[in-house]
Design a protein that fits this description.
By secondary structure, this protein is α/β, with parallel strands linked by helices. About 15% of the residues lie in helices and about 10% in strands. A 13-stranded parallel sheet has the order 1-2-3-4-5-6-7-8-9-10-11-12-13, with no helix packed on it. Helix 7 links the parallel strand 12 and strand 13. Its main location: secreted.
């Protein structure tokens, strides 16, 4: 058993270097050095998982790391090297076993579980991560206090279940809620009112209609940054989104238009996906997508006949598979300010567009020369 995170890394390095000579003979010194560097980078990459594991070892008393077989559910696996993890996936379970108090990470995906009662979690006060993907859980099967009692829970995965509405109540501590590929068509009022720490909400591939939303549906989501509602049945843009939304994914719906000034309420949106909808020129705001925060705009597979107005800050624009016949550069080229700061020239201060996709339209090559003159940072144009 490793005594701390850094001992674990040292052990892995020692094992790697034992075989480095053989690798060097085969691949050469340069190749071996490259492999060594890549493996080392992978071990120290600061992902959510490595941060969480580091917190386990740095924030716990080493005396508490001893794994006692008697508290490990017989249906599950308790790895000695990760004493805060409990693996119960792919076991045909119909019920959630009693969760030991030492567990932070719980894996229950791909079982036959239909209910989430309170009792199995009554001692699991340290849980940070629950994966219940690919089960048969319904809203009626979730006991009211089962999830809200988990005061330290950060990540909840309930993808590929039988949910018809967003479950509630949920713990205030929650940061990510994954509900993709359910049957969600309802979001009860007040569902998100206490989820001020939620940063990611994934509702893709459900059965959401426009009537699922009220003006205050997303009230309380003060820190939400990523909202995914792709592959639903929306015809309109959802109302009153959280102000801090940075990534908005609405592809594969039936959205026909975007209200005037819609983006005023989400001034930080940087990544906007509206591929595979029914957007037409008449359905766009008069200013198009001239929103300074947007860096990546995806409008593929719609019904546009012309390139919409864009911001000088936009870097990636996807317009493939529309009905566009020509590119009017005089309309879409963002105008430069009449006066530039002394330290800036027109090249560095001009439009930032680097990638433009126009294939699948009615545009014929060659690329218009004035397009390249306007967007001088363009690295790729696909027609």
């Amino acid at each position: 058993m490793f005594t701390d995170h850094f001992d674990a890394c040292d052990y892995l390095k020692i094992q790697f270097f034992k075989h480095l000579t053989v690798v060097s003979l085969i691949l050469g010194t340069i190749m071996a050095t490259t492999i060594c560097f890549i493996i080392w980078v992978l071990f120290i990459t600061d992902t959510v998982w490595t941060r969480s594991v580091r917190q386990v070892y740095e924030g716990s008393d080493p005396e508490d790391w001893t794994v006692h077989d008697f508290d490990c559910p017989r249906e599950c696996f308790c790895p000695p090297s990760f004493p805060t993890s409990l693996y119960c996936e792919n076991r045909g379970l119909k019920e959630i076993p009693a969760i030991p108090s030492r567990i932070w990470y719980l894996y229950l995906e791909n079982n036959l579980i239909e209910t989430i009662p309170e009792k199995p979690f009554e001692n699991a006060t340290q849980l940070r991560w629950i994966n219940l993907n690919k089960n048969k859980i319904t809203n009626y099967g979730i006991e009211k206090g089962a999830l809200s009692q988990l005061k330290k829970l950060l990540f909840l995965f309930l993808e590929d279940n039988e949910l018809e509405e967003v479950p509630s109540p949920l713990p205030r501590s929650l940061e990510q809620l994954q509900l993709a590929r359910n049957k969600v068509s309802r979001i009860p009022q007040g569902t998100f009112s206490n989820l001020e720490n939620l940063t990611l909400l994934d509702l893709q591939h459900n059965k959401l209609l426009d009537n699922a939303f009220q003006r205050d549906t997303f009230k309380g989501l003060k820190n939400l940054m990523q909202l995914n509602m792709a592959k639903n049945a929306l015809r309109n843009m959802p109302p009153r989104l959280p102000a801090n939304t940075m990534q908005l994914f609405l592809d594969n719906n039936s959205i026909e238009g975007i209200p005037e000034n819609y983006f005023n309420v989400i001034p930080k949106v940087a990544f906007l996906r509206l591929n595979h909808n029914k957007l037409s020129d008449a359905g766009l705001p008069s200013s198009g997508f001239n929103v300074s925060s947007i860096l990546d705009l995806q409008l593929s597979h719609n019904q546009l006949t012309k390139v919409p107005r864009i911001s000088a800050h936009l870097q990636h624009l996807h317009l493939d598979h529309n009905k566009i016949k020509n590119v009017n550069v005089s309309v879409i080229c963002p105008a430069l300010p009449t006066t530039l700061p002394a330290e800036q020239d027109s090249f560095s201060y001009g439009p930032h567009l680097r990638y433009l996709r126009l294939d699948g339209n009615e545009i014929k090559p060659p690329i218009p020369t004035d397009l390249m003159t306007c967007f001088r940072l363009l690295q790729a144009v696909i027609i």
